[in-house]
Amino acid sequence: MALDLHEQSDAEQTAKWFLEYVQAAIGVSHATVELIHRGGRSLTATGEIGLQFASTLSISLRTSTSTLGTLTLYDESPNRFTEQDASTAQLYADHAAIALARIRTESTLWEAIEARKVIGQAQGILMERFELTGDQAFAVLRRYSQDSNVKLRDLARKLISTRNLGENV
After folding, report:
1. pTM passes above 0.70
2. How far apart are CA 39 and CA 45, in angstroms?
């Protein structure tokens, strides 16, 4: 399981694979993973989750530095889950959390690389148009970003697509 999860590059697909593994290991018919994102939460489930469950087991998906979400197992039988089930679920959850944290880190790095590339292109436009140095062009972008309360990368994208920073240029 750890190898399969490590090879995934998409958080949703990783959650689906994880649910299949943990569901088979513990022998439950329903399970969910709720992931916490910057923009909110997402839920991945093994099927329809009805209200007829008599037992649930929730396990944190966590690393040493953050909590990424929650695994919840459901069963129709009362008192279904044992300490062994909880230990097994936590072991699987720890592997999944490591894989999900890696995916998030890679995604963040790629976003930073893309943002830097876009900002560099915008700097180049300003350097050519106004005969500025790289530092001066960056200062212009930063000032417009702060004055208009727009993220620097979004301002750079606008400049690249419109060749204009807005009404003030």
Report:
1. yes
2. 20
Token pair for residue 36? Answer: 């916490």
Closest CA to 160 of 113, 131, 121: 121
Rounded to 5 degrees, what are φ and ψ at 133?
A: -80, 170
What is the phi/psi pair of residue 44, to 5°? -120, 130
Read off the DSSP letter of residue 82: -
Angle of helix 83-130 relative to helix 152-162, nearest 10 degrees, comes to: 50
Q: pLDDT tens for residues 118-138?
A: 999 999 999 999 999 999 999
pLDDT digits (tens, 9 = 90+) for 6-62: 888 888 889 998 999 999 999 998 999 999 988 788 888 887 778 788 999 999 999
Residue 164 backbone phi and psi in degrees, to 5: -150, 140
Are 55 and 74 within 8 A, CB to CB? yes
Instruction: Report which DSSP code applies to 8.
Output: -
